Amino acid sequence: DTAVSQTPKYLVTQMGNDKSIKCEQNLGHDTMYWYKQDSKKFLKIMFSYNNKELIINETVPNRFSPKSPDKAHLNLHINSLELGDSAVYFCASSQSRTALTGNTEAFFGQGTRLTVV
Amino acid sequence: AQKVTQAQTEISVVEKEDVTLDCVYETRDTTYYLFWYKQPPSGELVFLIRRNSFDEQNEISGRYSWNFQKSTSSFNFTITASQVVDSAVYFCALRFAGTYKYIFGTGTRLKVLA
Lengths: 117, 114
Hints:
The structure holds two protein chains of two kinds. Helix content of chain A is 3%, strand content 54%. Chain A is mainly beta. In chain A, strands 2, 4, 5, 6, 9, 10 and 11 form a seven-stranded mixed sheet that branches. Chain A is globular. In chain A, 33% of the residues are buried. Chain B is mainly beta. Chain B is built from no helices and twelve strands. Chain B is globular and about 45 Å long. At the A-B interface, strand 5, strand 9 and strand 10 of A face strand 5, strand 6 and strand 10 of B.
């Protein structure tokens, strides 16, 4: 069983479209993240949710809207896609009770490669 | 500043050579956590190790070993007797106690040639 799964794995779409990426984790974690990896492989956090509450929002355009229907899911919706949104988006999860004390690590999904044409 | 620096952009070695990937971090916090992740060509991010700031013991796991030195703010990763399957991008990351945010270095691409 995949611990953190994202769908789709690849997404090609035209500029201006709206798209969503779904993420689910079966680890029982209560904290989930979205990271963006650009063409130079640089990984940067976008959002983090803890128990469905937004706790990190890193100066991301408001065209990006995360939604967490429950602790096991964190979806990412992107409106009016732009060429610069092309990247690999990673979902991750960790357990907050141990995250704050340090005794844990984040587990990542396999990534979603978004290409905007 | 809170920062992770991986100065080596790309390293190429021949199979069976040993290779060390450098990681230098900056922090004013006394409690923090360091990580290494591997990103193989297939693209996923695989967790390798976590180290707490108050535990400077080095760690060995098979062909992998990690050297944590607070005095130089470094957390270097050595692969002994490298194999082609070790070819990947390796990321060092930092997280502070009481936060959820992971700060990643820019990664080092390791190419192991047969």
